[in-house]
Amino acid sequence: MKFLSKKQYSFEKVRNVFINQGPGKYTSIRTSMSIIKALRLVYGFNYYGFNNKDVVGGNYEKILQLFKQKKLIKNLIKPLYLS
To answer: What pLDDT, in 10s, does the model give residues 11-29?
Structure first.
């Protein structure tokens, strides 16, 4: 939450959140999803899941491109766990 306050922003202003749905460790992914879903209940924003393959080389701008092209599904996360 410090990040938002440093930017003089609040959750009330957040409309969309993007969450990495894997592949990754089970506990990390489940924790992230649980936090996002709980915050959504309070603040009512939309969340969108993306995969690591969508951000090749750390290019997170690709996520925004996928969002603008409506290729990310709203409020649906399909986790991909590593074994």
So the answer is: 888 899 998 888 888 898 8
Q: Provide the token pair at 54.
A: 């969508």
CB-based contact 55:62 (threshold 8 Å):
yes
Strand partners, 20: 50
What's this model's pTM, rounded to 2 decimal places? 0.75
Q: Where are the domains of the chain?
A: 14-83
**Architecture of 14-83 per CATH?**
2-Layer Sandwich (3.30)
Contact 55, 21 (CB under 8 A): no
| Structure confidence by residue, pLDDT tens digits, 1-10 | 677 778 788 8
